[in-house]
Structures are given as C-alpha cells and as structure tokens.
Amino acid sequence: MAMPPETKSDCEYSDSCDFFVTIMASVPQFSANIQGKYCHADFRDCARYAYAKQHGKGCVPEDLFPNASHF
Predict the structure, then answer these.
(1) Where would I find the H helices in 1-71?
(2) Residue 47: which of 32, 23, 63 has the closest Cα?
(3) How is residue 4 annotated by DSSP?
(4) What angle do CA 66, 64, 8 make, to 5 degrees?
(5) What phi and psi, each to the nearest 5 degrees, are found at residue 49?
(6) What pLDDT, on the 0 to 100 scale, is given for residue 4?
(7) Residue 56 — left, alpha, or beta (φ > 0 → left; ψ -120 to 50 → alpha)?
C-alpha cells in the first residue's frame, strides 16, 4: 500500500529526475551523496523538486542543481 505524500520519505521524482539520469550518471559517487540529501531526506529543500511542483516536471531546467545553482 502506498504511503500518504506527507509521510513518504523519498521524492516522487527520485527515480526519473533528469539531473541524476543524465548529468550525474558519470559520477555515481557524488550522485549517491546528493541523492541521499535531496532525494531521500530533505527533498522538499530541492530546487528541482520545487520547480517541478510549481511549473511541471517537464519544465525543470536541465542545468538546475538541487541546491539551486546552475552550471
């Protein structure tokens, strides 16, 4: 049975986030650390999550990092 959103501990986008699927795929050691913080613990602090919730998942800029910086 699925958990209600308010008690779920992982971001709903964690398995399909373009940032990790494409940008961070080549550096899994860093990816795992960032995912631990932004996808599994404090996902509501993730800039990509906030942007997706406000504008839609397909509108998140590719170069937006979870901490709101751009590359």
Answers:
(1) 18, 28-38, 47-55
(2) 63
(3) P
(4) 35
(5) -60, -50
(6) 47
(7) left
User: Taking phi first (over 0 means left), then psi (-120 to 50 degrees means alpha), and beta for anything else, what does residue 68 get?
Assistant: left
Model pTM score: 0.79
Distance CA 15, CA 12 (A): 8
The tens place of each residue's pLDDT in the chain, 71 residues long, gives 444 454 457 999 988 999 988 888 889 888 889 999 899 888 999 999 999 999 999 999 988 999 998 76
The domain limits of the chain are 18-59
Return the H-helix or E-strand segment holding 7.
Answer: none
